[in-house]
Amino acid sequence: MKIVKLLNFWETKKLLEKYRIPFCQSCLVQTKKEALKEADRIGYPLVLKISSPKVLHRSEIGGVKVGIRNKEELEKAFEEMEKIPGEKEGIILQKMLSGIEVAMGVKRDPQFGPVLLFGLGGIFIEVLEDISLRICPVSQREARKMILEIKGAKIFFGFRNLPKVEIKTLAQTLVSLSQLAVGEREIREIDLNPVICRGEEIKVVDAKFLR
Amino acid sequence: MRNWERIFNPKTVALVGATERQGSVGRGIMENLLLGRDLRKIYPVNPNRKEVFGLPCLPSLSSIPQKIDLVLIAIPAFSVKKVVEECCQKKVGGIIIISAGFKEKGSEGKKWEEEIARLVKIAKIPLLGPNCLGIIRPKIRLNASFSPLMPKKGEIAFISQSGALIDSVIDRSISENYGFSTIISYGNEADLTLSDFLEFAGQDKETKVIAIYLEGVKDGRKFMKVAKKIKKPIVALKAGKTEKGKKAVQTHTGSLAGNQRVYSAVFKQTGIIEVETLEELFDIGKAVAWQRSCKNGIGIITNGGGAGVLLTDYCQELGIKLPKLKKETLKILEKSGLMHHGYSKRNPLDIIGDASFKQYQIGIEALLSQKDIYGLIVIQTLQSMTNSRRNAEVVVWAKKKWKEKPIVCCFLGGEGIKEGAEVLAKHKIPNYPELKRAAKAMWSLIEANKK
């Protein structure tokens, strides 16, 4: 089996920026002091996440704390996270966003090359498997079709009191990801999940790149 | 573009491994080749025989006194390479290796196959196979296969990775009255691949629709490029292979984007209509071969309420639109003075169980006269006064009058609809004994219009 490497925080951030895929405001900190300082800059509520080259699905080891509303909560969450054993690159501090969660991804098919995935985000992607796929590169038009093809597409048009999602902007993000997949051949698999959408604002909250 | 003429329309064919031995592949192919003996020269080759079915049998390819377009090879795998070498020396037009026992058998067979592939690439001779049934072209009575049956000529090109499926497909096509332009069993794809045959069928004048059975493609990107370029409808049935052991480290995308789903994406992106069953492959193949594609907007006529409701449900599931009937349409029906007082006055147009062909005629005329009805599904349930033959004749009449609007029939029943079904098949109007199949056929005509 090939040796798999998970890109670290900085590599991930750089790659997303290169292809103009908007990343949620985030920073990597090492100490509590640093965390408190950055928290004031980003503003509450916040999310803390463990950053480790060894952990692919961090919620499985309790490596995600959401809804941190103030300094006290941050201190407590930080201490708990520090206790998680294993190699760590640091702790990610992130602005907590709300909106419609979607997932995007890429894998390489031995026959057809990079395959782009779209679906509803969070854990639902695995439960419902409501996804659509296309072979890269995809055009804006094809990306639009991908979005509207999933069974849950109704949710993007303002369901109950949920925010609407601008399909055009979402499709553009998919096109950018498709360009990344074609341009960065050494990347084997990508998971952007969740990507939080609210109107025209599309932000990648969690990104995993396997090399 | 390759020169396909010498493989698909050969003037001279040699069969290496020709024999009269009962139950042998060599005999099966020989008998099939003889069906076209008045159209092309046939050379049996076998060093152990003087004569096969009255034709002089030659010891080797080199002893054939003229140029050879197509060489068929049906001898044990280990001796095939030598014959391919002879083919290269003789500069034949194309080769079909029927023999099995190559890549599919193990490492030794794989080695032979690779060596053969190398030889024909250097000599620039197209090779089909190995491990296949061969090809069949009913229109020119070319049956270069060991299939026990000769299909009717028709408009469907069937390209199949499985050889064994083909015989059953032909058998069924004969009883259901549809035919083929070409049948290709492509085997191991040592040289020519599915994409090449797709390209051939795409430019073949006899072919109106391409039906594919596949397990996987060998050249993904080329396959997509070729499929996208072809303007004819393509229908595909992909057999799934259970995913091999999952990798230890995998993203959600990695585990969700399985083989079958990737293929479905490929089909969507290239405008290929994907089907789930063999029955559907030819239900749709037949519909698209026989009828024009159309925009979304379908009329339904029925002599049974329940059947109309069921079909409406299926249409809705498939996204088939059923336009409302216009005033002018209803006027045609009223003015005829023939309608039952309880007829439905909407789409589906229920002309009530006692309808005769006259009510069908008026109903069909009214529906097809409406501009935003682009196609028609005719349902016939069997009532004591139903005359399926007369009803079928009305459909044929309508088809002639509204050439641009496709008609799909659903004559429900068995023995009682036989006569009608025969009339329909004769005039290339697809008929299905099940409402869902008729709905799917109409759906495919709408899909085909998008390509």
What do you see in this structure?
- The complex is a heterodimer of chains A (211) and B (451).
- Chain A has 211 residues and is α+β, with helices and mostly antiparallel strands.
- Chain A is 31% helix and 29% strand.
- Chain A contains six helices and ten strands; from the N terminus they run αβαββαβββαβααβββ.
- In chain A, a hairpin with a 3-residue loop joins strand 5 and strand 6 (113-120).
- Chain B has helices at 5-8, 25-34, 80-90, 107-123, 164-176, 194-203, 220-229, 252-256, 259-270, 278-290, 305-318, 327-336, 357-369, 388-401, 418-426, 435-448; strands at residues 12-16, 41-45, 51-52, 55-56, 70-73, 94-97, 127-128, 134-137, 142-145, 153-160, 180-185, 209-214, 234-238, 273-275, 298-302, 349-350, 375-380, 407-411.
- Chain B is elongated.
- With 451 residues, chain B is of the alpha/beta class.
- The longest helix of chain B has 17 residues, at 107-123.
- In chain B, strand 6, helix 4 (107-123) and strand 7 form a beta-alpha-beta unit.
- Chain B is built from 16 helices and 18 strands.
- At the A-B interface, strand 5, strand 6, strand 7 and strand 8 of A face helix 7, helix 8 and helix 9 of B.
Which percent range describes the beta-strand content of chain B?
15-25%
User: pLDDT below 50 for ≥5 consecutive residues: which ranges of chain A?
Assistant: none
Q: Which percent bin holds the helix content of chain A?
A: 25-40%
Tally of individual helices of chain B: 16
Task: Supply Rg of chain B.
Answer: 25 Å
**What oligomeric state do the depicted chains represent?**
heterodimer
Percent of sequence in beta strands of chain A: 25-35%
The beta-strand count of chain B equals 18
Helix content of chain B: 25-40%
Sheet of most strands of chain B: 7 strands, mixed
Order of strands, widest sheet of chain B:
9-8-11-10-12-13-14
